[in-house]
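To the team - zinc ion complex, inputs and output below.
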Amino acid sequence: MQPPPPRQVVVFRLLSIYFLSIALSPIVTNACQQEPASAFRTPSIPALKMTTKLLKPINQPLTEPQPGEWLDQQKESGQSFSQYLRIRPIVLTPRRNKLYVQPIGQFNPKQLEIIQLSSEYLSIYFSCPVEVLETKSEDGIPENAQRNHPTQGTHQLLTSYVLEKQLAPELPGDAFALIAFTSSDLWPGDGWNFVFGYASFRERVGVWSLSRFGNPARDPESFRRCLERTCKLATHETGHMFSIKHCTRYSCNMQGSNSLQESDSQPIHLCPECHAKIVFATKADPVKRIDNLIRFSQEHGFNREIEFLKKAKEILKN
Ligand SMILES: [Zn+2]
Ligand SMILES: [Zn+2]
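Output:
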């Protein structure tokens, strides 16, 4: 009943188009407050289209996919900024303008740090407040919603239980989305090995697991890699919640991915088309957003992002 690993990851990514999720931390607090979106001077749609043209030269167009990569196996047409506007995308509103992060499980101190920092990164990336809720234990989860993987022995939680029973009833009124980060691995039901994450766009809830991103307590490089993977997954999936489809034009955080290796090869920044979508959906100040991304990247070792972000800032501020 165990599908081969490549297919499982593919299916996860397919599902991730339709479903989403996130993370959390130890205390009830506003972890990553930014100014309200209304305080930003939002670029007009013509200005965003012009910016898209100006940013193109610093972006890397995609070439033919390698065998086994996402676009080698999936037929996707992509989504330009103009196409995005035509589908009436889901955006932040004055009433629903906040992301909530719910940690579930037992985390070591380094994992809790990963959750806090990922929440800060989400706040910067989507220019909105993120609140990390008090960590929930797995104690109340019924036996039929958890298992040990039949061959790997890994402890896993059933995604539908987390989404429907733990998150959906707790969705705050001002939430754009409520996202759980779990310490345990996840599986979505019979016939599956695992998923990295799962979400329901309709319910605006999602769950992602830290369990396959390495032990951040091992050494500084393991911490950095785990943080980058967690931030990338969280922002990619939350991007889908803003109605953004997979990117097929450029090297971009919104590219689909068939494996952790393929995901690791992709950047965490957005291409010109996806950048315009996010600025439109969140009413972000693009220069302030880039400034904050540069600061975070410098502080936490996202070194391959810094040069790109600095070039983007030069273009955006003019
Ligand atoms: Zn995706
Ligand atoms: Zn893109």
